Amino acid sequence: MLVAGLILPLAMTAGTAANAITGVFEDVPDDLGFTEPSEQSVLLAADGSVIARFYAENRIVVSSDQISQPMKDAAVAIEDRRFYEHHGIDVQGTLGALFSNIVSGGTSGGSSITQQYVKNSLVEQGRTLGDDDLVKTATEQTLSRKINEARYAIAVEKTMTKDEILTGYLNLVQFGPSQYGVETAAQYYFSKSAKDLSYLEAATLAGITQNPAKWDPVKHPDNSFERRNVVLTTMLRDGYITQEEYDAGVNVPVEDTLHVSRQVAGCGAAGNSAYFCEYVVKDLLQDESWGKDAADRTRQLYRGGLVIRTSLDPKKQEIAFNTVTKHQPVDDPSGIEASLTSIEPGTGHIVAMVQNTRWGTPNETDDRMTQVNVNVGKTMGGGSGFQTGSTFKIFTLVEWIRAGHSGKDVVSLNADTTFPAGTFKASCSPRSAMTSWRVSNLGWPGGANTVEYAIKNSINGGAAHMAMQLDLCDIINDAEKMGVRLGNPDAEWNYGPSLVLGANEATPLSMAVAVSTLANDGTRCDPMSYTTIEDQDGNVISKRSPKCEQVLEPDVARQVTKVLQGVVTPGATGDKARLADGRPVAGKTGTANNDWHAWFVGYTPQLATAVWQGHIEGNISMLNSTINGRFYREVYGGLFPAMIFSEYTSQSLEGVPPASFPAPSQPNIPTRPHYEAPAEEEHEEATEEPAVEEPDNAAPEPAEDPENWENNGNGAEGTKVESN
């Protein structure tokens, strides 16, 4: 018989058999080329705290000194008692197993720890490389596989110490349904590191590897109790524990020793940072600066043991989530969503990204769960963006200043009129301007006043008359340069005049980037979600630096900021966005038609933030809504978004010394005659500007409505967008 001839007559002595078998296996490779075992990757916040873990196999590779001696002893006792004596093959165990297999027709049993290390290494190599044939070959129940495994085991013993082999084995083998390696197992079952395992805990773990499903101590504690005691018996037999230790442990229920710490893989475990987590994952997989391609980057994320350090500030993230959900609760019957994205000017670091929804797939028990990140566009896990309302007046103001005009210039505030086709200019899309456009003011009678006044009170007529003197394409160009992006990558900009009042659908993240450009003296820094990627050996394989570009002249940004500071003053539309400590702040409110969407985008020199409120599904009115138990006839940017911005920014910068915005190098001199602001308006530098006469048709302040107290002098704005 071929098999009998191969393994030699069983009547031979063990020594003779060993010599003969070793002779058969003389032709073995010197270098097996095993890959590093798959290891979980971890996503860290800026302070080093864990956001999420990713793995195909939940494994944490540790060194020998991070595994307790009782754990090593237990594995040797139950799996390979002659481990320290043989040279890769336990001849006695192998001969006995083969004889049994010849008689029964089976193919299992008798593998040494070294052989098991080889088998698991080959399986792991196949999984890592995506080579199903290699996995199949390494696990098939054939004598040829056993022989090849034994050959490799001899080679391993020539190049690795016993301790290295045992450590490698304990890092590879499966200890549960999704627990690979002894460190992950120790953390899962006992909430401790492998270096701290007791002999009783070690015996439980060592008993699992033979059949992880059957001996699972969580699902089958009775089975595990029986198996653990078998391991204890072998440890006593081989002198690894004393009789006293055996007696003390053998009757202890397995359940009494467990302290299970369950882990959830991926962004589902990231809590209120789940949407940021998912954004980082998409950012990683699309980043061509590391990895061969997206498939390789995916493989490394789930098997490479990467350490990804992100920009997220856990303190600001917690403040953001608590503030957003305080004003717009997660399960509010209104069904309205709200979000906040915050960026550090000068770096582009995303320090907070939240929304008032639970991350996940909608199901029968929770149909409001969603994986749509409302802060970003479709390519990054979001939607099509949202109409920005009057926040987009920022870019008309930017182009106004950039074109040489002034915040002190007088413009008509007249609205409630239809601008005929051809009134506006769009050089890049002339046909877009060849349409009529009706604009209305909410509570403003018209007249004329300064650009500062028009922006402060968000008067549509003022913005429209400013845009009449500009090129609409230049306004969009400024917005794009500053970082504004449409949510739908396949959509095209609407260059019609309604763009002035926010008809285009942009993402909150990109609006935060845009105002961070103003905070950073006209230099845009692209949003950054992570800073470094390290491999499992601690080598930095990707390092990101801020990617910044000067897109506006500093003095243009400063003059725009000076005007936008007026928005966040008593009685202006951004009244509720004022900061608790009185620190300098600038920003803009925005409300889309029919209260579809409400915004506040604002900034200090240290922090730029966009707050959005509306419906994920798109243009659904928030008029006559009951939010957090209170009825609101109108929901607008100067209400919830402004309050959220104020509370978030005030708390996030608590203890940080206030910083002032740099003053424009040139006085804000009007380019045409204008009037002095009404007495009730406060202008910090009014005394520095030339005195001028007030025109007869200056717009009066709107009358307060005792029946609409929410809007009286504290943030009602005039944005009504008529599509063109």
Automatic annotation (TrEMBL):
Signal sequence, start to end: 1-20
This protein's GO CC annotations: outer membrane-bounded periplasmic space
The organism's place on the tree of life at top rank: Bacteria
GO function terms (MF aspect): penicillin binding; peptidoglycan glycosyltransferase activity; serine-type D-Ala-D-Ala carboxypeptidase activity
Region called Disordered, residue ranges: 653-724
Boundaries of every Penicillin-binding protein transpeptidase domain copy: 343-619
Family matches, as Pfam families: Transgly, Transpeptidase
Family affiliation: In the C-terminal section; belongs to the transpeptidase family.
Name of the molecule in the record: Penicillin-binding protein
